[in-house]
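Tokens as discussed.
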């Protein structure tokens, strides 16, 4: 008797997002992939015929590739319950392996404090960490079995397990996951382990921070990438001297070197440091107060950055970058359209191939991929590359999955791009990107949403959303960026448009309600609004611009309603940041105006 078995392993979003450092974020994603891979291999070893993930994803050549946290397999013989239990044990064994790595790291790099770990609580947290769900259904017809087993799985997930609390009185909560008590509360900085004094961590968070040696690139390095690329092309000697100074300061609070394995796009400057932005807190400098040689290196590093900025005629190094969150649309319908295991397996293989391609695309655009599991992508991108990367990702996704289109259900990718300051809290950065993704989904899916969070605005943002059918990157964003780069219109144009929108919102009924419009000239108000926008463009044209000829492309963009004008204003303000990043990276020998923070 054959069964269709499905397994879901979590937690997912909350677990991955529980991070203070990008290393925590990357490691959370890697742990979840490794645990799922271990469970899938166990199912395969027992004789299960894997449908999802694709069997090719489990080969030794792909052991470092991300996979989604779901398993679907055909169990041709044996008890599916026993298969599920063996898979769960394999997943737990993977976590135990991480725990062993953690303890080994403490013994080798911090032996004096390794005994301070609460091993009993650590074991308990590891054993009770997984959210493991399994469901199975006797298989006669694959499509029906898949529908029934997914219904069972949804019902099981809707149930809640009320486990007895495993807390400890008087023990500090974890700084990364306050739902758990800490198993280690450091009384001193442990730079080799990446742990600071007074940063209590629970067992799973401690694994995320310590178990793997690899240090993931920081968001500050991603933000600085346009500047680094420009140095490589125009000031290679200064870049070499910056590397030497950074090497002398590595493993201090000011500079950390990271491993470029799998991230060769950052090999020209494999260091995380806020010194590129002139940011070095007094407390961080105070920690070096007794090491005059290193303090001199800090001063030299800052002097070299200033020299490079003056030589390149740029303002400050741009502190903004982009977080891309993308998710496939109609995936449930696409899976439902598969009528046999072979079709579903083909879809799984194509999604796995897209994951591999997504990693290449992100790297090509100087980005850092955090996660790519099937149709889900999370990545950090420098500002000048973000929109082109988003466009290429959606084109690749739709092209690779076009064979699964059925009627009106076509594969598409909703993408959220959140632009923010590198100093923003990491969990805020992730939530903002997911918020942009949700707006793209809410726009009928198959859309691109772009949000800007300035340093002072915090959770408030400006942004826009457009369907990919309208090719917004080439038909809108490129037009606006080019207009600002060529100084066809001044940056003040956008703020004049915003003021116009604020004034007109008070007269919204008059402007947009048909009952207030002239029946003999229904387009009168629309035409007046368009003329007002064009009048502002004429008054705010750039010094070298010719609004009648060179702003024609900008004025072709819709501007006949308040919403249109507000969208245009928001996109122009965002485009100012993109222009600034482009000019820093491209090598134009002109002053880059500083953007208000």
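Sequence:
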């Amino acid at each position: 008797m054959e069964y269709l078995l499905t397994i879901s392993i979590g937690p997912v979003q909350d677990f991955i997002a529980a991070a203070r450092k990008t290393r925590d974020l990357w490691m959370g994603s890697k742990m979840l992939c490794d645990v799922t891979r271990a469970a899938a291999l166990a199912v395969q070893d027992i004789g299960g015929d894997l449908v999802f993930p694709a069997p090719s994803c489990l080969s030794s050549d792909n052991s470092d590739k991300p996979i989604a946290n779901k398993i679907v397999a055909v169990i041709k013989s044996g008890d599916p319950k026993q298969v599920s239990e063996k898979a769960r044990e394999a997943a737990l064994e993977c976590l135990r392996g991480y725990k062993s790595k953690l303890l080994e790291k403490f013994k080798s790099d911090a032996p004096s404090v390794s005994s301070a770990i609460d091993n009993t609580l650590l074991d308990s947290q590891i054993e009770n960490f997984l959210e493991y769900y399994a469901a199975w259904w006797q298989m006669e017809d694959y499509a029906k079995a898949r529908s029934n087993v997914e219904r069972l799985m949804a019902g099981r997930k809707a149930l809640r397990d009320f486990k007895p609390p495993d807390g400890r009185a008087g023990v500090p909560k974890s700084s990364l996951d306050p739902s758990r008590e800490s198993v280690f509360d450091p009384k001193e900085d442990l730079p080799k382990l990446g742990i600071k004094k007074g940063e209590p961590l629970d067992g799973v968070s401690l694994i995320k921070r310590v178990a793997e040696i690899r240090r993931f690139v920081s968001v500050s390095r991603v933000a600085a990438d346009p500047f680094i690329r420009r140095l490589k092309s125009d000031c290679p000697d200064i870049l070499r001297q910056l590397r030497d100074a950074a090497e002398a300061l590595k493993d201090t609070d000011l500079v950390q070197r990271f491993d470029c394995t799998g991230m060769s796009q950052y090999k020209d400057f494999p260091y995380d440091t806020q010194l590129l932005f002139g940011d070095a807190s007094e407390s961080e400098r105070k920690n070096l107060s007794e090491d005059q040689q290193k303090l001199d290196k800090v001063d030299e590093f800052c002097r070299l950055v200033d020299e490079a900025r003056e030589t390149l005629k740029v303002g400050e190094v741009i502190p903004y970058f982009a977080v891309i969150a993308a998710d496939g649309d109609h995936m449930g319908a696409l899976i439902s359209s598969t009528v046999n295991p072979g079709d579903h397996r083909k879809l799984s293989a194509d999604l796995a191939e897209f994951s591999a391609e997504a990693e290449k695309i992100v790297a090509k655009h100087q980005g850092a991929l955090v996660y790519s599991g099937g149709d889900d992508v999370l990545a950090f991108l420098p500002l000048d590359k973000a929109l082109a990367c988003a466009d290429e990702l959606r084109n690749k996704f739709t092209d690779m999955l076009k064979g699964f289109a059925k009627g009106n259900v076509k594969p598409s990718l909703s993408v959220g791009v959140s632009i923010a300051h590198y100093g923003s809290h990491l969990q805020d950065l992730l939530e903002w990107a997911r918020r942009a993704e949700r707006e793209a989904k809410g726009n009928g899916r198959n859309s691109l949403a772009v949000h800007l969070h300035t340093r002072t605005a915090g959770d408030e943002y400006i942004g826009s959303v457009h369907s990919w059918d309208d090719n917004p990157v080439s038909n809108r964003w490129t037009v606006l960026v080019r207009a600002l780069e060529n100084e066809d219109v001044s940056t003040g144009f956008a703020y004049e448009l915003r003021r116009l929108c604020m004034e007109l919102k008070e007269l919204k009924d008059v402007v947009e309600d048909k009952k207030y419009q002239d029946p003999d000239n229904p387009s009168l108000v629309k035409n007046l609004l368009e003329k007002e926008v064009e009048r502002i463009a004429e008054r705010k044209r750039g010094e070298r611009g010719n609004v009648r000829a060179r702003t024609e492309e900008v004025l072709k963009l819709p501007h006949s309603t308040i919403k249109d004008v507000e969208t245009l204003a928001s996109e122009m303000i965002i485009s100012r940041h993109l222009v600034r990043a482009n000019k820093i990276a491209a090598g134009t020998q002109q002053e880059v105006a500083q953007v208000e923070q």
